[in-house]
Specification:
Shape of chain B: elongated
Number of strands of chain B: 2
Structural class of chain B: mainly alpha
Oligomer: heterodimer
Order of helices and strands of chain B: HEEHHH
CATH architecture of chain A: Orthogonal Bundle
Largest interface: A-B, 16 and 12 residues
Number of strands of chain A: 2
Radius of gyration of chain A: 11 Å
Distance between the termini of chain B: 32 Å
Shape of chain A: globular
Number of domains of chain A: 1
Structural class of chain A: mainly alpha
CATH superfamily of chain A: lambda repressor-like DNA-binding domains
């Protein structure tokens, strides 16, 4: 799964730590999602999409092989 | 989803406070057979099997309960350390927790299988005794190491 978290964060000008706080998860979690090491749950994907005021599939995208 | 069978975060600290002295005393117990006299008490033995006697059921016997106390405290404190929530417990931490538990179970039983094959008699008895505690200890080491690695890799970014 690809994601555009970094871009979305840059647009909103917030750090990983700030996003973590908004989504009520640890900074490690945001870091792992952003670097593609962790496939997040649907609930968290929905929460993050809401923070960025976007649709889930605008931020998270299936990749070949998923 | 809400039920995760974990203790609140503060129990982790309590676990460590109990675990460290009990772990040291347990090692002393293994090496020196440390059995203070005041711990010689009457206990109920559900199934009692004395040398060259038939098995008796539900009788009172004399026993030093140092090992019983140490064993129980060691298990309870290890459980508290292993299964108390992190301050920032979330789904990613849960994944690391699960991976570490699977890893610890494999390592623990791999060691036990090797011991089945290569260790016999009284020494095997000791392997069996240690094996009661090692699964939790392996888990605690692996899980905390994984968390430490994660934090360390993060400090290089951002």
């Amino acid at each position: 799964m690809k994601n555009s978290l970094k871009v979305e964060r840059a647009k909103m000008n917030i750090t990983q730590a700030q996003l973590a706080e908004l989504a009520k998860v640890s900074r490690q979690t945001i870091n792992a999602i952003e670097s593609g090491k962790y496939n997040l749950s649907t609930i968290l994907a929905l929460k993050i999409a809401r923070i960025f005021n976007a649709k889930v599939d605008a931020i998270f995208e299936l990749e070949v092989g998923d | 989803m809400k039920t995760n069978f974990l203790f609140p975060n503060k129990f982790k600290k309590i676990g460590w406070i109990i675990f460290i002295p009990v772990f040291i005393l347990s090692i002393l117990w293994v090496i020196f057979e440390f059995e203070p006299e005041f711990l010689d008490v009457s206990v109920i033995s559900l199934f009692n099997d004395e040398f060259l006697q038939d098995m008796q059921i539900m009788i009172i016997i004399e026993n030093n309960i140092a090992d019983e106390i140490l064993g129980i405290l060691l298990i309870v404190s290890s459980l508290l350390i292993a299964f108390s929530k992190e301050r920032n417990e979330d789904e990613f931490i849960s994944k690391i927790r699960l991976e570490s538990l699977v890893w610890a179970t494999y390592v623990n039983y791999a060691i036990l299988i090797l011991a089945f094959i290569f260790i016999y008699n009284m020494i095997f008895f000791w392997v069996a005794v240690f094996n009661m505690f090692t699964i939790l200890i392996f888990f605690i080491i692996r899980y905390n190491w994984a968390l430490y690695k994660l934090k360390k890799s993060m400090s290089h970014e951002e």
